[in-house]
Amino acid sequence: MASNLKPTFGYTIVYVKDVAKSIDFYAKAFGYNVRRLDESHRWGELESGQTTIAFTPRQQHETKDLTGTVQVPKSDRERAPMELCLIYSDVDAAFKRAVENGAVPVSEPEDKQDWGQRVGYVRDIDGMTVRMGSHVHATKQD
């Protein structure tokens, strides 16, 4: 009976200034295919495997009235309490492509020995932090 209550992860919804621009940016900078952009440009989706990365305007009244106003960082010294982590087999090439297509570099890719992942960070066109990493490899236990 409880197994009927197990959720499937459906969407990560990113609130952005301009849905069409963000969809285009993510397609070019991170290599996603666009699944959908509605005619009103109030909803867009990227193909990202079994889940979906979706975009909607920051000022969407349907959710603002229910859950409050979207808060955004006021400067590059602040960040949202969430980040996207995109996994690549070649983090360095993916990082380079992202920056060439408008992502703002935050930290060049480097190996993180503590958790066995190669990781770099960029900011998207709305200032959100995007972690670009390899698959996590098991680390030796002492």
TrEMBL record:
InterPro entries: Glyas_Bleomycin-R_OHBP_Dase (IPR029068), Glyas_Fos-R_dOase_dom (IPR004360), GlyoxalaseI/FosfomycinResist (IPR050383), VOC_core (IPR037523)
Region feature Disordered, mapped onto this chain: 55-75
Domain VOC, first and last residues per copy: 8-135
CDD domains for this protein: VOC_like (cd07264)
One Pfam assignment: Glyoxalase
Name of the molecule in the record: VOC domain-containing protein
Organism: Corchorus capsularis (Jute)
Taxonomic placement: Eukaryota, Viridiplantae, Streptophyta, Embryophyta, Tracheophyta
